[in-house]
Specification:
The structure holds two protein chains of two kinds. Chain A is mainly alpha-helical. Chain A is built from 30 helices and six strands. In chain A, a hairpin with a 7-residue loop joins strand 3 and strand 4. The two termini of chain A are 56 Å apart. Chain B folds into two domains: 110 residues, no CATH class; 360 residues, Alkaline Phosphatase, subunit A. The chains are: A mainly alpha, B alpha/beta.
């Protein structure tokens, strides 16, 4: 045993060493030799997934390596060891690898019993064929930059609208699939609107589109979505999860902290279509940009979203270090899909990131002034754009005054008062500021990631398996150099990761499903040529424009497909990885609430500003020490978009977390969708759900005389679709029955109107409105409402 | 078999109640979403795909795309857990770990060796030692020494295993609670109950697998993260049941919607969603129909289970429970009602044990006896009740704080009230039932109750032992996240054989 049991990682489980060679009867080659014509297995596609099970003990982590053998490194794997070799290229029978994975002796067989999934007969045959063909290794796909000269496949014919469709069609041809027909325009409108703006189309928007007979009506609809201010809000929402944005500090008292001006910066950046490379540099190093503005400094609040601990008696350095480790993991994860967490304590077990290299990346981020202080210093006193303009104008006014003039002194005093009034509106936001050169911290490798165990000092640097820093970086490179390295055209990951993030939001499943892990343990891309095509297009043709990328995908033939399945298509591709149909999936928490508010006509379109407090159940905030209280908004803030809802890390809004929102404690690039009864309860009973039903019921009562017309209107407002007669019948039946109930119990009707915060219109009938609220409650719970199909 | 029989009977009874409640003819094909009904709608193929989901456990556990494992690694001794957490951390010197030697040291400067290396949360300078003002006596055949503050627990001396050699790495509440429940002092990892829900699934169709009950007026320091699901699917997070307001958030129908109307809306939804499913063929739609049906049942089952007023006056008196209030006693009684319904993990948090001695409301002379009075009787009643109902054999009960307290008087800012500061190096807990060796004391601390001298048990070891009792190898209950395998015990933990029956 190399070390006491309790200190071992699961992945470090000691294994019988490969070098203990015992006599094993030569195994009859049970696995059939592959047919002569079959192409040799591809390392990345076929072999890597098998060997990846061995890598924890026979991989990059030097400290955990068993038998001094690396299977991730061809040179080491074929090395002669005591007269044999684990892999003998061209000679499977002489390769001890095959011997060990086929052994029935529990002391010999690899992986050791309980240490991993055994190698199947089929996999053994694949390994055998690969060794026979010369055991060629390949670099992990994601470490190789996308090929800028790749040719577009000649597939898809007239169906294809963009090159991306040809990559999809080529896959269809390989698998014998054919694309689904195009969805109807109303379905497409709802789909694109929810995907691009997080809101469903209003009936007016829908009717304008449906009446538009021009051939590019849909494209122009998409353009309107891209121009909508809601676009920035929707994509900011996505980015807030990545950035672990919250309105509190985290940890014990979890007190408030002002981060919302940064959230607004993100909304404005998306709406202005700030190129993604610029967006990246501003957030990571806006304070270091030559000629950087206050907005650039504000952008660096991205990394001040880390938690701070102000509990009495805590050690600031411990929590400062925890924040810097979080920043390092978030930087590598959010932009490059690298899982760096392992390397905090030891060399990465699967990817070629050593622990010292991890701390070299950390060194870029370890020299900022913030230090887990209760006052959150350093702060930017940030002014809104109009205030900044007004201030500049006052300064110009003052400059322009004639010093000799009589009124000047008085006027100067007046201007100074005005400036002081503007300055008083400044909002203090935590930001990044670099330590002065002579006071910079030295970064050390930390033993087992413990801040109290500094080991060797390291200089800022980037992992050696990736491209080098830009050549113009200073001798001691800073955060700005790191940011530029991340968006360097040579970076094999950044564009792919962003393209994949957008794809996942529009298709429900990333081309790389493990959005958070592009490393060797992540899932390989379902269609790498397509991913690479989009990444190259994003960088080279679109100049990192997020809007152009969204437009291209949302107007593609692939995206426009009908989303229904048949037993055959479901069996052929249960998760729709090959995209022979349109995507159908449940909306995210915020979009469901926002869509209900749109249908109800109650959504406030006010943008930006401090977080708001829509209704939440009493007693959810039982807060230790801080005594902070949730004061429910009674004005339009009650119905603002969900991304403006106050986010307390230890107690986020329960409707949101029930619908799979995370806690925002650390970077989360993916939400896992679940389907639970608690979600049904939120959508049936939450105050906001009922008030949305009230608003929708009022609209259904408006000018429509018959209940059928009211039902059709409500249905369209909820789903963008006109209901079928059998659907109308179900709802009419429900209406009739509940109306009888409310007529016999007017106090129930009155109570429901009050719950829904509506009053019956003049000469209106409270029981009728109550029965319509019940209808609206059903409509806002339809599978079709919470799903975009 | 009888369990299953009872469950079916309960189900039938509920259905019958519901049908009469609605007073309407429930549409045959929606009555029960069995595959036959769905098949009749031509949805059989989609139902086959939804297969494991439809009609499975509430909370989707047991088949939602492999969201749980639904099987232990080996035969479990415990099938459920009640975890009684005294948030703030009780002083072991005054309750479970008597230190007569402190009497000679009372008021004297503490020995140098206890200061180095030491990092106190609040104590400044050279503190004075603090003897316990309370007497201890041996109880039961085991002779376990228990403080006079806990006469009820003392009656159960032969039933419990006291561990005097617990230790942790953290000496602030939030990180220490996180370490205890999630295996890491930082936010973001799944909690013990989530791991267990993930590993075992649920056995109750109408209730959550993991229920949290809070008393003492405040949530624990680390907030809801101590019952969060971290990177496990959200179905596994603890569901906080409250003793005032709605017991589970959002279970109450809004004013003006009665049960009959709610039933009618669920039916209409099911019918419309089934039509939708015919069009889209999406198995997720079928799952959603089933979840709405379950939600409707839960709306009845949760308040029913949470309503302690149906208990006999003798039972209420035994626990010291008062229906309609929020108290630890009520929560103990609720814990019994919940495990009776096969809820897997019932987590109680009771606030008010952080006895620093800055004033009478947080000292060991006034506040500590008050907290003991509030909790001792209900805990003793809970153990009796579980034993009488045959539930203690396979229900594991654990009582703990998140760390220990110092042998010294804190005397913050010269306070004259007696109290103890945070202390990570040793603390006492007890366990009972569910495969735990009864009537023992495990581990030993030094004469000052300040350092462990025998059989240390780290919180990771406790976690490993708990998982073992539930039938899990803690090294194999794992979930991959951000490129590595995570488990409750991080990279540590050894099962403590001395605690196993």
């Amino acid at each position: 045993m190399p070390f006491p049991r309790r200190f071992r990682c699961r992945a470090l489980r000691a294994t019988p060493a490969f070098s203990i060679v015992l006599a094993v009867a030569p195994l009859v080659a049970a696995a059939a030799a592959p047919a002569a014509a079959a192409p040799p297995p591809s390392f990345n596609r076929d072999i890597r997934p098998i060997l990846s099970r061995c890598i924890a003990c026979h991989g990059p982590d030097a400290a955990a390596r068993a038998a001094n053998l690396r299977l991730d490194d061809r040179e080491d794997a074929i090395r002669d060891r005591r007269g044999g070799a684990t892999i003998v290229p061209g000679d499977p029978d002489a390769s001890t690898l095959l011997e060990r994975i086929t052994s029935h002796d529990p002391d010999l067989v690899m992986p050791p019993p309980g240490a991993g999934e055994p190698v199947s007969a089929e996999e053994r045959a694949t390994l055998r064929a690969w060794i026979a063909a010369g055991a060629t290794y390949q670099t992990h796909w994601a470490w190789i930059a996308p090929d800028r000269d790749a040719t577009t496949p000649d597939a898809g014919g007239a169906w294809a609208r963009h090159d991306l469709d040809r990559f999809v069609a080529a896959r269809h041809a390989e698998l014998g699939l054919s694309p689904a027909p195009e969805a109807d325009l109303a379905t497409l409108a709802r789909r694109a609107s929810l995907d691009l703006t997080g809101l469903p189309p209003t009936l007016d928007e829908l009717d304008v589109l449906l009446a538009d007979e021009s051939p590019d009506a849909y494209e122009r609809f998409v353009d309107r979505l891209l121009d909508s201010p809601a676009f920035g809000e929707r994509w900011a929402r996505v980015w807030l999860d990545v950035a672990r944005y919250a309105d509190t500090k985290g940890y014990e008292a979890d007190r408030r902290r002002t981060m919302w001006p940064w959230r607004d910066w993100v909304i404005r950046a998306f709406n202005a279509d700030m190129p993604y490379d610029r967006f990246t540099i501003a957030q990571l190093a806006g304070d270091l940009l030559p000629g950087g503005t206050d907005d650039d400094v504000l952008a660096t609040a991205f990394h001040r979203n880390t938690m701070t601990n102000d509990e009495g008696g805590t050690r600031d350095e411990e929590y400062r270090m925890a924040a810097v480790i979080d920043r390092t993991n978030t930087t590598l994860g959010a932009w490059m899909g690298l899982t760096a967490e392992c390397s905090v304590c030891h060399d990465h077990k699967y990817d070629p990131l050593t622990s010292p290299e991890y701390y070299q990346v950390l060194a870029f981020l370890n020299t900022t002034q913030d230090a887990d202080r209760n006052d959150e210093q350093p702060l930017l006193h940030w002014l809104a754009a109009e205030d900044r303009a007004a201030r500049a104008a006052r300064l110009r006014d003052r400059e322009a005054l004639d010093p000799a003039a009589e009124a000047t002194t008085e006027r100067v005093a007046e201007i100074d008062r005005e400036i002081a009034a503007i300055d008083a509106r400044a909002i203090a936001v935590p930001v990044l500021r670099e330590q002065p050169a002579d006071q910079r911290r030295t970064t050390h490798v930390l033993g087992k990631g413990d801040w109290r165990s500094p080991e060797a000092p390291v200089e800022p640097g980037v992992p050696s398996f990736l491209h080098p820093l830009p050549s113009d970086a200073a001798a001691t490179p800073d955060r700005l150099a790191l940011a530029r390295w991340i968006v360097d055209d040579r970076n094999p990951l950044t564009a792919r990761v962003h393209v994949n993030r957008v794809w996942e939001r529009l298709f429900g499943l990333g081309l790389v499903e493990t959005q958070e892990d592009f490393g060797t343990q992540g899932t390989p891309p379902s269609n790498q040529p397509l991913l690479d095509h989009l990444a190259v297009r994003f960088m080279d043709d679109f100049g990192w424009s997020h809007k152009a990328l969204c437009r291209e995908i949302a107007t593609s033939a692939t995206y426009r497909q009908w989303s229904a399945t048949t037993p055959q298509t479901l069996a052929a591709d249960p998760r729709n990885e090959h995209l022979a149909r349109g995507p159908r999936f449940r909306l995210e928490a915020e979009a469901i609430r926002d869509a209900a508010l749109v249908a109800s006509g109650r959504l406030s379109r006010t943008m930006h500003g401090p977080p708001v407090f829509p209704p939440q159940p009493d007693g959810v905030w039982q807060v230790v020490y801080s005594g902070d209280a949730w004061t429910t908004a009674e004005n339009e803030d009650r119905y603002r978009r969900s991304l403006y809802t106050f986010w307390r890390r230890t107690s986020p809004h329960p409707a949101m977390t029930t619908l799979d929102a995370g806690s925002r404690e650390t970077c989360a690039v993916r939400r896992i969708r679940t389907n639970t009864p608690l979600q049904a309860l939120v959508l049936l009973n939450d105050e906001t759900s009922i008030e949305a039903a009230g608003g929708l019921a009022l609209r259904m009562s408006g000018t429509t005389p018959s209940i059928d017309e009211a039902i059709i209107l409500g249905f369209r407002l909820a789903t963008a679709r006109t209901p079928e007669p059998d659907e109308i019948a179900v709802l009419r039946d429900l209406y009739d029955r509940t109306l009888v109930g409310y007529r016999s119990s007017p106090e129930s009707a009155a109570a429901l109107l009050e719950s829904a915060r509506v009053t019956a219109p003049e000469n209106g009938d409270a029981p009728e409105l109550a029965a319509r609220i019940v209808l609206a409650n059903v409509l806002l719970n339809l599978d079709e409402f919470v799903t975009r199909g | 078999m009888t369990d299953r029989h009872d469950a079916i009977e309960r189900e039938v009874r509920r259905e019958a109640e519901r049908a009469s409640l609605l007073g309407t003819t429930r549409r045959a094909f929606l009555g029960r979403l069995g595959t036959a009904g769905i098949g009749a709608l031509g949805l059989g193929w989609a139902a086959a795909d939804a297969g494991l989901r439809v009609g499975k456990d509430a909370f989707g556990v047991g088949g939602l795309d492999g969201l749980d494992l639904s099987r232990p690694h080996f035969a479990p001794k415990a099938r459920r857990i009640i975890y009684l957490h005294m948030a703030g951390s009780p002083p072991h010197h005054d309750l479970l770990d008597p230190k007569p030697a402190l009497n000679d040291w009372n008021g004297k400067k503490c020995p140098e060796e206890l200061l180095d290396p030491e990092n106190f949360a609040f104590i400044k300078g050279h503190p004075e030692m603090l003897a316990s003002p309370y007497g201890f006596a041996k109880h039961g055949e085991s002779g376990t020494e228990i403080s006079e503050l806990l006469p009820g627990l003392a009656r159960h001396a032969d039933r419990i295993a006291v561990v005097r050699s617990m230790h942790t790495d953290q000496f602030n509440h939030a990180p220490a609670q996180l370490l205890l429940y999630t295996g890491s002092p930082r936010l973001g990892r799944p909690s013990m109950g989530s791991w267990i829900s993930y590993g075992l699934g649920s056995e109750n169709r109408d209730l959550p697998a993991y229920v949290v009950l809070v008393s003492g007026g405040k949530t624990p320091s680390a907030g809801k993260s101590v019952w969060g699901s971290g990177f496990l699917p959200s179905v596994h997070q603890g569901v906080q049941c409250r003793s005032s307001g709605d017991p589970v958030l959002f279970t109450r129908d809004p004013a003006g919607i009665d049960r009959g109307t709610r039933g009618a809306t669920i039916d209409a939804l099911a019918e419309l969603n089934a039509m939708q499913c015919e069009r889209n063929g999406d198995p997720e739609t079928l799952a959603r129909i089933a979840q709405y049906e379950l939600a409707f049942r839960m709306q009845a089952a949760v308040p029913e289970t949470m309503d302690i007023s149906v208990e006999s006056p003798e039972t209420l008196e035994r626990y010291g429970a008062t229906p309609g209030t929020a108290s630890f006693a009520n929560n103990c009684l609720l814990a019994r009602r919940l495990v009776e319904q096969d809820v897997r993990f019932v987590q109680l948090f009771d606030w008010g044990w952080d006895t620093h001695g800055t004033n009478p409301s947080d000292d060991i002379v006034n506040q500590l006896p008050k907290k003991c009075r509030e909790t001792d009787q209900p805990i003793a009643a809970l153990l009796d009740d579980l034993a009488e109902r045959g539930l203690l054999d396979d229900t594991l009960v654990i009582w703990s704080g998140e760390f220990g307290r110092t042998a010294m008087n804190e005397r913050r800012n010269g306070s004259t009230h007696l109290g103890r500061d945070h202390h990570p190096h040793c603390f006492s807990i007890w366990m009972a039932g569910g495969g735990v060796r009864p009537g023992i004391v495990h581990g030993e601390t030094c004469e000052f109750g300040s350092r462990i001298v025998r059989d240390p048990v780290h919180v990771h070891d406790l976690q490993a032992t708990v998982l073992h009792l539930l039938g899990f190898d803690h090294e194999r209950l794992i979930r991959r996240h951000q490129g590595r395998d995570f488990r409750l015990t991080d990279v540590h933990g050894i099962v403590v054989p001395g605690l196993l029956a």
